[in-house]
Specification:
- This protein is an alpha+beta fold.
- Helix content is 19%, strand content 33%.
Length: 232
Amino acid sequence: VVTGASDLQVGVVQHTGGTNSLVAPAGGALIADSADIPGGLLGLMCPSNIPVIGDICRQITNGTLNRVTATVESAGTPTDFNLTAGATSGQPIIAIPIRIHLQNPFLGNSCYIGSAAHPIVLRPQNVTAPTLGIQRFDGNGTPDTAGDMNRLSLVNASQTDTTFAVPGASGCGLAGLLDWAVNLKTGLPSAAGRNSVVLNSASTYLAGLHAPGTVVPDNGKLLSQYWHSAVQ
C-alpha cells in the first residue's frame, strides 16, 4: 500500500550524562494522510462462504461501501531518539509506536490494527546517509550567522524498517465481529521480520537554541517563544 504524506513532531529533552527523553504534542506525535486499501472491503474479506461475511459481500454494491481507508496514528510517545543515526545510515533513528485505523461503513469507526497497549513499533533507519545542512537564525526566523537558534537539516534520504511485528485487528464490526475476517485475509498477527515499510524522500529537521546554557533559567521559555515565531 502506498501511504500518503506523514509528519512526525517531537520535543527532545537532553539530560545530564548524554541521555534524552521525548515529548509529544497533545494530539499525538504523528499526523499522516489516509491511504486507500487496494480492492477495498471486497479485497479484505470477499468472497466468503461464511454466512455473516457472505451477507456483507452481497451488500457491497458501490464504491462507497467497498472503500477502505487506512490512516497511521500515534499510539504513544516515541522513544530512543538517536541523532547520530539520523545523520548516518544503518542504525534505528527513533522508535515510533503507531496503530492503523481502518475505516469503512461495515467496519465501523473503531477498527484498528495495533493499539496503545499493543502498538506497531517502527524503528526506521536511513538506507543511505542524508544530505546534511546547518542554519543559524534569529528568534523571529531571520537568517543570521550569529543568531540565537540553530537548525540541523537531514534531507534526501530513504528510510526503511523490516524488524517490526504487527498485531491482529480489533474493534472491526459490531462488537469486533469482523476482527477474525480482517486478520485471516491480511495474515495478522504477523511476526517480526515478515513486514516492511519504506519512507521515501524523508526529511528531518532539528531546531533549538544555539547556546541554551547562557539563558538559564529562561531557556525553555525562550525556546517556546522562538519556536512559535521562527519555526512554525
